[in-house]
Amino acid sequence: MDQYNKMVSTLDTSKKKTPDEEALYVTTLKALSEAVSKIDITYHHLLLNNIFTIRIWYLQRDTLDAFLDLITRLAAVADQYLRECLQMLVNNFTPPLVQRNELPRWAVSRKKDIFFHLCESLKTISDTVPLAPRILRDIIDRSMPKLFDNKAKMVSFVECMLGLDTDRMGDLIGATLLAKVVD
């Protein structure tokens, strides 16, 4: 139990990590990716909560790759965590906002890379789980910023959302995406 608690605390992103802690974080994510079929909501609620509340905007490149690999694998586990994985990815369509509801400078420079990784992960999930595009459409519909939300938030969300309008994914959810943008 002690090692489990240590692993859960390793996934806590509330504090800045040293290079050694970051390496342990990546290793933990890779190990979890190999054991996704063993993760059970009954016993691993805290672990899953830490995973599904991560803001990928703060992750370093290696950590980001390992984390998104975990999410794509977790989404395919007997559809147990599909909705949560898709919701977590959609939640990351918008970068963290700072004072006066503006994007931080560092987020602007990472935006294109983050959006690319988010779209690739969502495409991988939709290729693996045929039900994913329909669920994703509903999640996007509910998560779309409202008319009176911050402009930077809305623009970021729409930019990332439009990145999904390609290939098979675009065929399945393209009309919904376009309707949401027009609304």
UniProtKB/TrEMBL annotation:
MF GO annotations: RNA polymerase I core binding; RNA polymerase I general transcription initiation factor activity
Family, according to the entry, reads as follows: Belongs to the RRN3 family.
Which GO BP terms, alphabetically? transcription initiation at RNA polymerase I promoter
Q: Which domain of life is it from?
A: Eukaryota
Origin organism lineage? Eukaryota, Viridiplantae, Streptophyta, Embryophyta, Tracheophyta
* Stored InterPro entries: RNA_pol_I_trans_ini_fac_RRN3 (IPR007991)
The name this protein carries in UniProt is Uncharacterized protein
| Xref: Pfam families | RRN3
Q: Which GO terms describe its cellular component?
A: nucleus
